[in-house]
């Protein structure tokens, strides 16, 4: 038996296998996932495993190595989150998200740190040797909301898009703040004296970390897009580039002590639209599936490890400290959300309702990031206390908050996410309303939310698309893609019903029986039937449509109505509209 | 209602548009706004400001039209159940949009009216047939009473999942 030879890969594979089997197990019993979130069940399995190992070996089971977590387990999850992040709602709410992520986290850190320090002053608890700095350090690692845990829970409760994006975006972006504060306080711990210069350096560092991460991510993202421009002949390894570049951006950012999470998110968001236009459909599907698969495996492993690491002799159970930690986490988060939302609502059309606020505050779950950070702490005599407190907070938030959030959401009847995709009519009307609002805003003299989006679109079409896309053609607009999809579906249905190519055109070509209510429809001729069913003609039509459906008004450089500058796409559109209008007058 | 500062702001905008300085706006005044000239729906939006058959709009009318685009506040929702519906209610917002489609004011968006709007929103290189197919599809999706036209109720139904309150509200008027 040559176990030594295969031990490491064998055990890793066994762990992953165990995790996946556990997942199958939960879903076999249908009711379970709706009551208990998957993350809880996984931790539970981990607890059992840990207990078994402890019982068998009579020593602490393997603790999740921070390096393994940060280098191998976390990136796939964050990449998945960043890639599938719906960019429009994200950027529409970016101000609020950043506010919650940055200001909210800082608020939480200092709040928790100071209040715990206050608790430590109480003589009865025997905690007086825990200094303010230690408390702040602890605060910095416990305050961060964890994207893994949040994702796991929010996926199951299907809240509306805006709320989802707020909590989700916040949990992803507060990593930058957490990392800086954590490193800052840790370095302060090792310094004999702290000058105010150091504090300012810390603040500056925060901006560097965040912005640097974005820059690194974007540069890797655009490089990836550029690379895929040339992959036409080697389709098979196209998906690989997506993953390689993303992972590289993460590692590079970490190497420079920048925020790896922010880097990988910006990389994914930056490269997405160009890569998707360049790579083949099959590669695209492969990318999506692999991303989901890897993030799922990581996710499962993290929670199981969390459970396993809980058992053992790593903890010092000072119950007053631990209880107060939990209480303060809840209180400060609730307060933070309340205060910040108050400010946000003053500047925004869409107010964040109190129900939403509750969900945001309550959905602030802590997870594996806190856990890894606490193990990374330098060894000092109170480390085990912190480990114990972190474990309890994580277990509390994931179990209690995770399990009760769904009934509470139902109770508060939060606006749930719409399940179905928009119809062609909806799309057209939405575009109509967009144009209408843009017009009204122009009349009332105020730039609406489209200003920056249009600027970005302008920049994109002028420069980026030319460099990064293989064939410089317009990406299909969503209306066109939708229409195409629906038409193809009809074509398939008709073919299956045996009507394709047989006899005269069926009057209900465009409306299958279940949608039609009367037979009084425009009869489509044979020719049109052929045309619209023929995929090439369909493609052609959609391409033309895509190129021609007008975008919302652009606010490029100011121009005179009678002299249109240059020959760019927005001015072509403008010219056409003006000609049309003059014709109709 | 609208606050004092909002009224002041709108009035200064009104006067800056009123080149003739006679206290009313004409269509030419609106057409002078460059962004509106390249808005596909520009003409229709301008028309919406002018009451039936008139060529001038005063400040009151100007504000009244813009009032449709005030955001709906939570505390307003339950306030006045018995009074007239405020201009910026979801139903009135949608009615405003509906009237932009429905030129002949027969309370229905016919295929032709839809085609006209589509033609405005789409470039010149698309054939009438292709546009016709899209229009047919749109009507077919919305039409419930089988009259090959979209009534206001059907229009509302199509947009029931859309956050109209947000899509038809300007931050400025908050």
Automatic annotation (TrEMBL), chain A:
GO terms for biological process: regulation of intracellular pH; sodium ion import across plasma membrane. The keyword Membrane applies. Residues 530-585 form the Sodium/hydrogen exchanger regulatory region domain. The keyword Membrane applies. It is a multi-pass membrane protein. GO terms for molecular function: potassium:proton antiporter activity; sodium:proton antiporter activity. GO terms for cellular component: basolateral plasma membrane. Residues 17-409 form the Cation/H+ exchanger transmembrane domain. It is found in: Basolateral cell membrane. Keywords: Antiport, Cell membrane, Glycoprotein, Ion transport, Membrane, Phosphoprotein, Sodium, Sodium transport, Transmembrane, Transmembrane helix, Transport. It holds the Pfam family NEXCaM_BD. Coiled coil: none annotated. Its main location: membrane. InterPro entries: Cation/H_exchanger_CPA1, Cation/H_exchanger_TM, NaH_exchanger, NHE-1-like, NHE_CaM-bd. The chain crosses the membrane at residues 12-29, 35-56, 68-85, 97-120, 132-153, 165-185, 206-227, 247-268, 289-307, 319-347, 359-380, 386-409. Belongs to the monovalent cation:proton antiporter 1 (CPA1) transporter (TC 2.A.36) family. PANTHER family: SODIUM/HYDROGEN EXCHANGER (PTHR10110), SODIUM_HYDROGEN EXCHANGER (PTHR10110:SF99). This is Sodium/hydrogen exchanger. It comes from Eulacestoma nigropectus.
Automatic annotation (TrEMBL), chain B:
Residues 5-40, 89-124, 130-165 form the EF-hand domain. It is found in: Cell membrane; Cytoplasm; Nucleus. GO terms for cellular component: cytoplasm; nucleus; plasma membrane. Pfam families: EF-hand_7. It comes from the Eukaryota. GO terms for biological process: protein transport. Keywords: Calcium, Cell membrane, Cytoplasm, Lipoprotein, Membrane, Metal-binding, Myristate, Nucleus, Phosphoprotein, Protein transport, Repeat, Transport. SMART domains: EFh (SM00054). GO terms for molecular function: calcium ion binding. Its main location: membrane. Belongs to the calcineurin regulatory subunit family. CHP subfamily. This is CHP1 protein. It comes from Eulacestoma nigropectus (wattled ploughbill).
């Amino acid at each position: 038996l040559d176990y030594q030879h295969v031990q490491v890969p064998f055990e890793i594979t066994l762990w992953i296998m165990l995790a996946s089997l556990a997942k199958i197990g939960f879903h076999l019993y249908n009711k379970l996932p709706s009551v208990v979130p998957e993350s809880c069940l996984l931790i539970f399995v981990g607890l059992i495993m840990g207990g078994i190992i402890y019982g068998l070996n009579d020593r602490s089971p393997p603790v999740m190595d921070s390096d393994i977590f940060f280098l191998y387990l976390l990136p796939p999850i964050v990449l998945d989150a960043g890639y599938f992040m719906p960019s429009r709602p994200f950027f529409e709410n970016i101000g609020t998200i950043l506010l919650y992520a940055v200001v909210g986290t800082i608020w939480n850190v200092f709040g928790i740190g100071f209040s715990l320090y206050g608790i430590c002053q109480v003589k009865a608890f025997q905690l007086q040797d825990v200094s303010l700095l230690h408390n702040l350090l602890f605060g910095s690692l416990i305050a961060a909301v964890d994207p893994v845990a949040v994702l796991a829970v929010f996926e199951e409760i299907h809240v509306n898009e805006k709320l989802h994006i707020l909590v989700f975006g916040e949990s992803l972006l507060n990593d930058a703040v957490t990392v800086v504060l954590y490193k800052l306080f840790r370095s302060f711990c090792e310094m004999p004296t702290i000058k105010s210069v150091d504090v300012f350096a810390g603040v500056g560092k925060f901006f560097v970390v965040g912005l640097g991460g974005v820059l690194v991510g974007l540069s890797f993202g655009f490089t990836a897009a550029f690379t895929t421009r040339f992959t036409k002949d080697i389709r098979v390894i196209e998906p690989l580039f997506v993953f390689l570049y993303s992972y590289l951006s993460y590692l590079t950012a970490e190497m420079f002590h920048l925020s790896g999470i922010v880097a990988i998110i910006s990389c994914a968001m930056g490269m997405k639209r160009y890569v998707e236009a360049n790579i083949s459909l099959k590669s695209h599907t492969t990318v999506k599936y692999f991303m989901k698969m890897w993030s799922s495996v990581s996710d499962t492993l993290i929670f199981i490890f969390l459970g396993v690491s809980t058992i053992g002799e790593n903890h010092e159970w000072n119950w007053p400290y631990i209880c107060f930690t939990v209480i303060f986490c809840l209180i400060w988060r609730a307060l933070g959300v309340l205060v910040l939302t108050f400010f946000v609502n003053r500047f925004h059309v869409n107010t964040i309702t109190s129900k939403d606020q509750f969900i945001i505050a309550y959905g602030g779950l802590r997870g594996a990031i806190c856990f890894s950070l606490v193990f990374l702490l330098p060894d000092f005599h109170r480390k085990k206390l912190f480990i114990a407190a972190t474990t309890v907070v994580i277990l509390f938030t994931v179990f209690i908050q995770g399990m009760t959030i769904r009934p509470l959401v139902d109770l508060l009847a939060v606006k749930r996410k719409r399940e179905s995709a928009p119809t062609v009519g909806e799309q057209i009307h939405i575009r109509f309303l967009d144009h209408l609002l843009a017009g009204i805003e122009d009349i009332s003299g105020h730039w609406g939310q489209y200003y920056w989006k249009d600027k970005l679109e302008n920049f994109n079409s002028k420069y980026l698309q030319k460099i990064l896309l293989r064939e410089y053609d317009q990406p299909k607009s969503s209306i066109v893609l939708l229409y195409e999809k629906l038409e193809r579906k009809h074509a398939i249905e008709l073919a299956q019903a045996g009507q394709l190519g047989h006899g005269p055109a069926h009057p209900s070509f465009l409306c299958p029986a279940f949608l039609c209510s009367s037979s009084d429809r425009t009869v489509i001729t044979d020719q049109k039937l052929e045309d619209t069913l023929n995929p090439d003609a369909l493609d052609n039509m959609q391409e033309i449509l895509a190129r021609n459906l007008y975008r919302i008004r652009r606010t490029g450089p100011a121009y005179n109505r009678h002299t249109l500058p240059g020959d760019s796409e927005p001015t072509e559109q403008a010219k056409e509209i003006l000609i049309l209008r003059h014709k109709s007058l | 209602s609208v606050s004092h500062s909002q009224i002041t702001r709108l009035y200064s905008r009104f006067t800056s548009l009123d080149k003739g300085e006679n206290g009313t706006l004409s269509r030419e005044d609106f057409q002078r706004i460059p962004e509106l000239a390249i808005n596909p729906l520009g003409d229709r939006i301008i028309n919406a400001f002018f009451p039936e058959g008139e060529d001038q709009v005063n400040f009151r009318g100007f504000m009244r039209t813009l009032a449709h685009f005030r955001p709906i506040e939570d505390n307003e929702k339950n306030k006045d159940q018995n009074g007239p519906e405020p201009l910026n209610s979801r139903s009135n917002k949608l009615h405003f949009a509906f009237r932009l489609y429905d030129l002949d004011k027969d309370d229905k968006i016919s295929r032709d009216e839809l085609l006209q709007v589509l033609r405005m929103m789409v470039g010149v290189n698309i054939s009438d047939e292709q546009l016709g197919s899209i229009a047919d599809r749109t009507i077919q999706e919305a039409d419930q009473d089988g009259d090959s036209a979209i009534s206001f109720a059907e229009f509302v139904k199509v947009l029931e999942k859309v956050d109209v309150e947000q899509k038809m509200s300007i931050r400025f008027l908050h």
